[in-house]
Amino acid sequence: MSTAALLDLIDDGGGDVRDLGADAQDVVDLLRADAAASTAGTAWTLFAAAPLTSTPHLNAGVAGDRGILSWWDGTALWVPESTTVTGRHVDYFRAGHHAQFDAGREITAEQVFKAAEEFLRTLQRPATVSWKREDPLPAPASTQ
């Protein structure tokens, strides 16, 4: 296991997990430690290819006992089926950059860690989560 690669993964807010040379559980343990050491929500983007907008990736974040999770398949965003949009936002930070997520999209931190562990083992969208496609926001009404 490359300690430098694992630390870079945390410092960079995620990254390409193909060449970490670490057991999936070791990486999840490091994500747990990173989240526990933070007083704010911490997020990571995990992928297994060159980081392009079309690259499938898992977005995961943890804030205390809650967390966020989404899957980008290259064309659409998928979110846990059990979540809803509330209009209230919670704050997370990825590599020091602020991101807001809808509070209704939070699930348990344990679900986030299980999904991250599965992704790290399979490099596929985690099956431990029931997913639904996130519909894009409707276009604003025309004022013409």
UniProtKB/TrEMBL annotation:
Name under which the protein is recorded: Immunity protein Imm1
InterPro entries per UniProt: DddI
UniProt superkingdom: Bacteria
Lineage summary: Bacteria, Bacillati, Actinomycetota, Actinomycetes, Pseudonocardiales
